[in-house]
Amino acid sequence: MAQNIYDTDAFFEGYGRLRRSVLGLDGAPEWPALRAMLPPTRGLRVVDLGCGFGWFARWAAAEGAARVLGLDLSENMLARARAETEDAAVEYARADLDALDLPEAAFDLAYSSLAFHYVKDFGRLAGVIARALVPGGMLVFSIEHPIYMASSRPGWMTAEDGRCTWPVDGYAREGRRVTDWLAPGVVKHHRRLGTTLNTLVGAGLAIHRVEEWCPTPEQVAAQPSLAEEMERPMMVLIAAGR
Amino acid sequence: MAQNIYDTDAFFEGYGRLRRSVLGLDGAPEWPALRAMLPPTRGLRVVDLGCGFGWFARWAAAEGAARVLGLDLSENMLARARAETEDAAVEYARADLDALDLPEAAFDLAYSSLAFHYVKDFGRLAGVIARALVPGGMLVFSIEHPIYMASSRPGWMTAEDGRCTWPVDGYAREGRRVTDWLAPGVVKHHRRLGTTLNTLVGAGLAIHRVEEWCPTPEQVAAQPSLAEEMERPMMVLIAAGR
Predict the structure, then answer these.
(1) Interface pTM, i.e. ipTM
(2) Chain A: closest CA distance from residue B211 (Å)
(3) pTM of the entire structure?
(4) Is A202's Cβ below 8 Å from some Cβ in B?
(5) Is the CB of residue A234 less than 8 Å away from at least one CB of chain B?
(6) Can you point out the beta strands (E) in B66-132?
(7) Where along chain A do its domains lie?
(8) CATH topology assigned to domain B5-241
(9) Which residues pair with residue B157 across a beta bridge?
(10) How far apart are CA A232 and CA A177, in angstroms?
């Protein structure tokens, strides 16, 4: 079972103060790039794996999705998602992505934002998703970039010549990483980017697009702190199809 | 046109002393992983893009390839390749990968070892390769990993706690990188891994496998200096199919 860190008080409170929690999709700088990878959602049956507060589920329903199923492990997240959702096309349920079952060929689009790096057995999950998609269906998701999460102690370093660099170590050693972010002891599972892609291919999905996200010049001008995301890849956005 | 650094004396002499130049394929630690990604070569028409001393071309011919065309920009490399090759199935020719033309649907396998990072316009080259392959044909190649070559000044750093780390900067800034390796002023072209993969997909190739190479425990035991390749990805091996 994946760690349910979102239901610890310190994490949930900290998470609720993040820009992306307050502003929703528009507070997530990668959202325009992720949205550009989505198929037109009108009429689609959508599953959102790790739906959080339901921002994407409500967006997809407003865009005309036929049905959106939002799944999350956190009772806290689901309670707020339900309280903030009025659209009858959206439904929420509790699910552990490490033990997920989905009906076969029931969805046109599987979506996930920054959740799969909490999943221990990605091979199992990719198989479940592939079988849950109809032929022609798509999986579009974001994860923390493995270069961002490989190190046992991730953090910026300043080189002797003043360059700001992101130090990588342990990249080839896949598995558990424990870091302190919003709360101590957050458990993530590091996989090389190649491993993630090969797992998708092994599950019968074709790789459509791999975006190692970086901000646009306009985003950096509006939010200068994003400039550091030009130096190292922090997130990767992937689209794959059945 | 790609830089012809292999025809400068200092580079060529240094390159000739590398383990992989002296021992051939068996001196390249990534060769077992790359070989495992190849289709059975018996009867195939093969093109080797950046063939160097012709080690792979001779291996493919010995494995029963019907024909092997080895292409390289360096007159020095081609002269030695020709001098060391007796197999009539192997032919060599001079070619600049940035200005390459190949006949359409003429090859079953395109292979390249550590050459494409010298190519400026990978989109053009990927299109030429895709058109040169028959349906069902494969492209298998290695490049320096973009995490290895992103920084303007690549090199190991020691963290305050003693960890050996590989500092990344400038990852999202694609383009020219000039480093000193064997000779001063070696020009390479940095592309994010996602860009390379998207370029292949855009050329009509399906991604089969992405190996961010690391040594096996047996390789590290036999050659302890390889241990550092567990910390950062140095090479990526890619298989794609038409």
Answers:
(1) 0.96
(2) 5
(3) 0.97
(4) no
(5) no
(6) 67-72, 90-94, 107-113
(7) 5-18+45-241
(8) Rossmann fold (3.40.50)
(9) B165
(10) 19
Residue that wins the pLDDT comparison between A215 and B158: A215
Classify domain A5-18+45-241 by CATH number: 3.40.50.150
Express each pLDDT in B72-124 by its tens digit.
Answer: 999 999 999 999 999 999 999 999 999 999 999 999 999 999 999 999 999 99
- Reported as half-sphere exposure (CB side, CA atoms, 13 A), residue B5 has a value of 20
* 8 Å CB contact of A166 and B169: yes
Instruction: Answer whether A48 touches B (CB < 8 Å).
Output: no
* Alpha-carbon torsion angle B209, B212, B215, B216, nearest 10: -40
Contact list in A for residue B212 (CB cut-off 8 A) is 171-172, 192-195
Average pLDDT along chain A: 95
Rounded CA-CA distance A116/A93 in Å is 17
Give Cα separations from A56 to A1, A18, A91, A92, A210 (angstroms): 24, 16, 12, 12, 20
Choose the most confident range, by mean pLDDT, from A151-165, B33-47, B143-157.
Answer: B33-47
Sheet containing B45-49: which strands, arranged edge to edge? Answer: B90-94, B67-72, B45-49, B107-113, B133-144, B235-241, B206-212
Tell me the shortest Cα–Cα distance from B49 to chain A, in angstroms.
23
- DSSP three-state, residue B91: strand
Tell me the torsion sign for CA atoms A147, A153, A157, A160. negative
Give the residue from B158, B169, B191 with the most A CB atoms within 10 Å of its CB, the best one to mutate: B169
> What residue has token string 């999943």?
A119
What is the longest distance spanned by two Cα atoms in chain B?
58
Burial B147-182 (b: 16+ CB within 10 A, else e): bbbbbeebeebeeeeeeebbbbbbbbeeeebeeeeb
Q: Which of B171, B206, B232 lies closest to A171 in CB terms? A: B232
What's the rounded mean pLDDT across residues A47-71?
98
- B148, B199, B212, B235, best to mutate vs chain A, most A CBs in 10 Å: B212
Residue-wise pLDDT for B6-30, tens only, equals: 888 888 888 888 888 888 999 999 9
